[in-house]
Amino acid sequence: MKFKFPILAKIAILGTLTSVIAAGISIWVSYSKQVSRGEENLLSNIDNTLDGVDYYFKDDESAASNLYALKTVTDKAVEYYQDPDLKNAKLEDFQSFEEYEEFFKSRAVWFYPPPNSMIGSREYLDFAACLRQIQSYSVINMLSCDAVSCSVAKYDESIKGYIFAVDSRYKRIENGKFYHISASHYVLTPQDKFVEASEDTYDTFDLAGYHTKLTTIIDEDGSEIATFFIQYSLDNLIQENRKLLASDLIVLTSTSLAIIAIIVLASYLMFTRNIRKLTKASTNISAKLASNEAFSVEWVQINTHDEMKTLTDAFMAMQGQIINYTEIIKKEAAEKERTAAELSVASKIQLETLPFASFVDNKVALQAYITPAKEVGGDFYDYFYLGDKLAVLINDVSGKGVPAALFMMRCKALIKFKLTSGLPLIQAIKESNDELVRNNDENLFVTSFVGIIDFENEEIEYVNAGHEKPYIIDGKTISRLDGVSNFVLGGMDGLDYVSEKVPFKKGDRLFMFTDGLNESINSKEEEFGYDRIVSSLDHSKGDTLQGVIANMKKDLASFVGEQEPFDDTTMMIIENKGDFHLHFEKKDYSIIEEAVNAFDEHFKPLSKEIKAKVGIIFDELLNNLVSYEKRPDLVIDVTGKIKGDDLILVISSNGADYDILANHKPKYATTHEDFELGGFGVAIVKDLTKDVSYEYKDGHSIVTMILSTDG
Amino acid sequence: MESKIEHGENLVISLKGRLDTVTSAELAKKLENEPIDEPIVIMDMKELEYISSAGLRLLLSLKKKLSAENKEFEIHNLNDVCKEVFRVTGFQNILTVK
Predict the structure, then answer these.
(1) Looking at beta carbons, which residues of chain A come within 8 Å of B89?
(2) Which residues contact A260 (CB under 8 A, 6 or more apart)?
(3) What is the pLDDT of residues A475-510, one digit of tens each?
(4) How far off is chain B from A624, nearest CA to CA, in Å?
(5) Would you say the pTM of this structure is higher than 0.90?
(6) A643 DSSP β-pair partners
(7) Which of A290-304, A468-482, B39-53 shows the lowest per-residue confidence on average (mean pLDDT)?
(8) Which of A616, A681, B21, B23 has its CA nearest to residue B13?
(9) pLDDT score recorded for residue A140
(10) What's the pLDDT tens digit per position in A193-229?
(11) Which member of A400, B61, B71, B93 lies 3.0 to 4.6 Å from B66 by CB, making a disulfide possible if both were Cys?
(12) Euclidean distance between CA atoms A55 and A69, whole angstroms
């Protein structure tokens, strides 16, 4: 598993930040400490040095050997001090300062000559510079050169500085301040603290780049004999400090880093140990969930009592909830699946309650379309015979889904029941409406178009209850059934409905639809609308009914494009085929094929077998008429209609009154030699029909035949 | 009606459509000019929709002609309507129907 910013990195970054801050603080602290520590180091060296000096003066004979040079200096100083001439010499006693100076020069050790090895060395030069600084300091302070009293000098290797002594006669204390008196009584270095100075007390004053300490040397009598200045370079101090600081820093930093690393690693292991446990448990759970495997609670043992413990407790509780919810979801899913399966079956059942989408008989051809159902819906079409009349309906129940579907089933059964019970159309609709209003707390309603096609009178009586107005397509025009729009069914009881009648002649078509068609919208929110319906109908005028519906669907689909269908769309188109009637005014064998083909076309749904029988009958009888009838102006009429399960065929002509059925009896033979033809046609006709009769009426010779259509 | 005549071991005449007044005459004409050398003539009526008495007339004359030449004439694959026509007219007795 990859983390973009793992905890380890966070801890490490935090640790590093903390350590940087800590290091900064320690550096600062240690720096200040180190400074004084470096100084202390030096001072303790000086102390040691001066202790040696003290010792020397106190115990006279036993000078520290390593302080040879200093001893020589102090020897000189003591000697100088003890010279009575010098001791008693006063400036006032001299003619001039130069004289005074000369006097001292002649007596005092001016400079203690450094060891030969030192001459020209950097240390010597430093010392000389230091001394000159003291001198120049005096000069700057309007002193005559006080260097006469600096009869000193020793370079001390251990402190990398110079020790020089000044005769205490040139020192005094005035007003609580220490003065080092030069020959001209000028102040050299006022030092407040030095007032209380004792043999082991010293203080500092600095001169450019040098640090100076003083101490007082006393003789056996306790009298001050000299003041020692110990001077060392600040550079040394700084360098010393830096060395210490650097080594300390290295130690400090590496220790810190080691500790940080240990802490980081330890905390990483400590934190992630529990996290790893949780991760493992979570992975197990999700694997089980993914594989749809049943799982029980994954126990995670956490011994710490911290946030991880809280998290783990929450995790354990969550597992329990997941198990519960998974169970619930499984149940719900099963329930949902069951419901979906039921809905799917329901939708199938609902569709099955609708009659076939295609229907053709000798009177009418019909093609319906209903949106392929994913779920149950509220649209429906229906058609059924009421005696010789055909009822055609299209309905759209308000709302969607199961409520609409149930209401639709109710409407469908109810309207059909009312119509088939023999009520006049408007009465049937009125009663259906009243019935629908009753027990309709959901206030569902249905828009309905119910038409009764009267083939006898070639008209449709219809009631439009708030439904989209259908179109009538005759040979030339497309017109809307613009009659009274009644109130919807199921909305309010006690209403009277008004019906209208329109002609519906042979070849006329009635196109009905639900608002799912005209209200379908495209991506621009435009409706398909009535104009497009009319235009589509106009384009498919010459097509078959299937062609008209297919064309409408295609136009709708190309208009709507990618848009999700908003509503169910239902359409139905019905054509009045009229009666089967052929009229021939020619005496020609070609009428046989014409008649057979016309019959096949008109009675398309009939079986091949019936069609074959009719073909034989036409061939026998029409052949007979054309062959034997003597009239040159022969007129033949052929009609056919279905009545119940029977097909009734009538062939009439203006020929002679000749009962073909009576006069021909077939003569059966057993071999072809004695086989005679004649009368077989009639025998076949009689055999193929259920009933055949002849009559001569109003100058017409008429053969009527009844064939069973159910095989 | 369509007819297909295939020479071979036997002569096979396959009929498709209707064998009625008009088409029988057409077929008769066609067969008149057809040399028949095979010993057996088979009329396959598998795709024949129906046969009327005019068609029967053709079959009878063909049967007579072939018998005179000592040739066999067989009718194959009659549908139900044709079988019925053969039955009612007694043609099933005088023609070899298979």
Answers:
(1) 666, 680, 683-684
(2) A15, A16, A18, A19
(3) 789 999 998 899 999 999 999 999 999 999 988 999
(4) 10
(5) no
(6) A646
(7) A290-304
(8) B23
(9) 35
(10) 222 333 333 334 444 455 555 555 554 455 555 555 5
(11) B71
(12) 15
* The residue count for chain B: 98
Coil, helix or strand at residue A500: strand
pLDDT at A62 over 50: no
> In angstroms, what separates the C-alpha of B83 from chain A's closest C-alpha?
11
Strand residue runs (E) in A36-181: 154-156, 161-167, 171-174, 177-180
Q: A662 at the B interface (CB within 8 A)?
A: no
Q: Which amino acid is at A214?
A: L
Sign of the alpha-carbon dihedral angle for A24, A30, A36, A38: negative
Hey, which residues 669-688 in chain A have their CB within 8 Å of chain B? 669-673, 675, 677, 680-681, 683-684, 687-688
User: CA-CA distance, A617 to B33, in Å (whole number)?
Assistant: 30
Which of A588, A625, A672 to mutate to test binding with chain B, by most B CBs within 10 Å of its CB?
Answer: A672
Of residues A133, A142, A114, A147, the one with CA closest to residue A210: A133
Mutate to test the interface with B, among A597, A616, A690 (most CBs of B within 10 A): A616
Residues in chain A within 8 Å Cβ distance of B84: 687-688
* Token pair 């002849």: residue: A694
The model's pLDDT over B27-41, given as tens digits with 9 standing for 90+, comes to: 999 998 888 889 999
Residues in chain A: 711
Write out chain B residues lying below 8 Å of A614, CB-based: none
Residue of chain A whose Cα is closest to the Cα of B88: A684
- The Cα–Cα gap between A226 and A217 comes to 5
In the predicted structure, residue A537 carries a pLDDT above the cut 90: yes
From chain B, pick out residues whose CB is under 8 angstroms from the CB of A669.
90, 93-94
d(CA B73, CA B52): 19
For the stretch A361-390, what's the b/e string if a residue is b when 16 or more beta carbons lie within 10 angstroms of its beta carbon? bbbbbbbbbbbebeebbbbbbbbeebeebb
Q: Please give the pLDDT value at position A614.
A: 94
Q: Does A711 touch chain B (CB under 8 A)?
A: no
Q: What is the CA radius of gyration of chain B?
A: 12
Asked if residues B86 and B76 have their Cβ atoms less than 8 Å apart, the reply is no
B50: which chain A residues are within 8 Å (Cβ-Cβ)? 612-613, 615-616
Q: Name chain A contacts of B71, Cβ cutoff 8 Å.
A: none
Biggest alpha carbon distance in chain A? 202
Which helix (H) or strand (E) covers residue A534, if one does?
helix A529-539
Give ipTM to 2 decimals.
0.92
Binned at pLDDT 50, 70 and 90, residue A190 comes out as very low
Give the three-class secondary structure for A156: strand
Q: Give the Cα separation of A44 and A294 in Å (integer).
A: 82
Q: Write the CA distances from A87 to A79, A215, A225, integer angstroms.
A: 10, 21, 11
Mutate to test the interface with A, among B89, B91, B93, B97 (most CBs of A within 10 A): B89
Query: pLDDT tens across A394-424, in order?
Result: 999 988 888 888 898 899 999 999 999 999 9
